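Handout, page 2. Input:
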Amino acid sequence: MISIKEYSLFSPNGKDCAIIAEIHTKSGCMYNGKHHHSHTEWPSPENPCKMLRCEAGVITESEVHCHTPCANPLPPEPGKCCATCPESRDI
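Output:
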C-alpha cells in the first residue's frame, strides 16, 4: 500500500518553513523521486545545512549546527554547510 501526504514543517523561531511531500512505503521513503531506506539521512539538495531523515515512512528535517574551533575559518566549500579551519603550519 502506498499513500501520499504533504506536511508543512515550521522551525521553533517561526521564520523558516518547508513543505515536504512524502510517499509512504513499507520499506522507506520517497523524496524528490528518490527512494531512501528507513533509518537513513541525507542532506537536502536545496540546502546543505538541512538534513533529512527517513524513519518508517516519515521524513523529518533538521538544521545542521556547525562548530568551527578557530579564529579565522574558511568559508564552506560549494555544496557543504560548515566553514573549516585552515591547516596550521609549523615553522
